[in-house]
């Protein structure tokens, strides 16, 4: 993911064993446009270097000064920039073969949010490591945070799904992710592309946590909505009881016996009834 000290052509590429079917036209929409946008930006930046330099200068994560750090859009835009042909090919191959599984399972909106969050997490952690002076400030680009998050999601959702490492060696999805973690840790140990590998592992961790604990978050949200609904119903019952009391008072003592507050409640009750009839 990082530009510095990185040979992007050394990535261990792999290929999904199962056929997606439908060709490029059969790819779900978010994966399709992520593939198109990443590839188009890469080609354009290389064909028009002057504009490409401008795009990378303002789009990469580069926490070398406070101004760059405050440009929060960088944690999103850096995910659409790549440092070389090997870098983008690896990321897009993984996205092409694995992305559709997750997008079709969750829906396009949820998939896009997940993908960008995992990538952004990598950019944020790298920036924090620079601020803590653990790492030197460098320029970081690439979709690898989101890609690693995607692989982590598949490892949780389909741990026994078979993939082919280098298109040759069969292994399960969960073993592939374990292998990626080991490779990243070894790379960090030998001091190569520490920032990039930290971002990779962050994306992986973000993907794992998101998928593993998403059911708990969904259950919490449902309980909260249930509580809100119950509270709203109780308020409605109390309001109706107050309206009934006021109407009974009008019946016994006349409209002139009402206080200003009681008159406001009656007007509100009338407005609510009119809205329900629309």
Question: What does this entry look like structurally?
Answer:
By secondary structure, the protein is mostly helical. It has two domains: 213 residues, Rhomboid-like fold; 43 residues. The protein is 70% helix and 4% strand. The protein has ten helices and three strands. Strands 1-2-3 form a three-stranded antiparallel β-sheet. A hairpin with a 3-residue loop joins strand 2 and strand 3. It is elongated and about 90 Å long.
- Straight-line distance between termini: 56 Å
User: What structural class is derived from the secondary structure elements?
Assistant: mainly alpha
Major β-sheet, in short?
3 strands, antiparallel
Strand order of the largest sheet: 1-2-3
Rough outline: elongated
In CATH terms, what is the architecture of the largest domain? Up-down Bundle
Radius of gyration computed on alpha carbons = 27 Å
Q: CATH fold name of the largest domain, please?
A: Rhomboid-like fold
Taken together, the total number of domains comes to 2
Percentage of residues in DSSP E strands: under 5%
């Amino acid at each position: 993911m990082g530009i510095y000290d990185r040979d992007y052509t050394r990535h261990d590429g792999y290929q999904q064993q199962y056929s997606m079917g439908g060709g490029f036209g059969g790819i779900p929409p978010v994966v399709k446009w992520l593939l198109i946008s990443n590839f188009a930006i890469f080609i354009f930046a290389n064909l028009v270097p002057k504009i490409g330099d401008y795009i990378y200068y303002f789009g990469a994560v580069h926490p070398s000064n406070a101004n760059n750090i405050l440009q929060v859009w960088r944690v999103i835009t850096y995910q659409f920039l790549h440092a070389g042909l090997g870098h983008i090919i690896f990321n897009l191959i993984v996205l092409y073969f694995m992305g559709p599984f997750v997008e079709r399972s969750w829906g396009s909106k949820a998939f896009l949010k997940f993908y960008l969050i995992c990538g952004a997490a990598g950019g944020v952690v790298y920036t924090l490591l620079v601020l803590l002076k653990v790492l030197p400030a460098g320029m970081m680009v690439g979709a690898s945070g989101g890609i690693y998050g995607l692989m982590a999601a598949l490892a949780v959702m389909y741990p026994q799904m078979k993939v082919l490492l280098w298109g040759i060696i069969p292994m399960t999805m969960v073993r592939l992710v374990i292998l990626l973690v080991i490779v990243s840790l070894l790379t960090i140990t030998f001091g190569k592309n520490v920032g990039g590998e930290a971002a990779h592992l962050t994306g992986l961790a973000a993907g794992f946590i998101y998928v593993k604990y998403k059911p708990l978050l969904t259950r919490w949200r449902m309980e909260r909505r249930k509580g809100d609904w119950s509270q709203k119903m109780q308020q409605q019952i109390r309001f109706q009881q107050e309206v009934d009391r006021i109407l009974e008072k009008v019946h016994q003592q006349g409209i002139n016996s009402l206080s200003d507050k009681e008159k406001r409640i009656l007007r509100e009750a009338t407005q609510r009834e009119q809205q329900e009839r629309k």
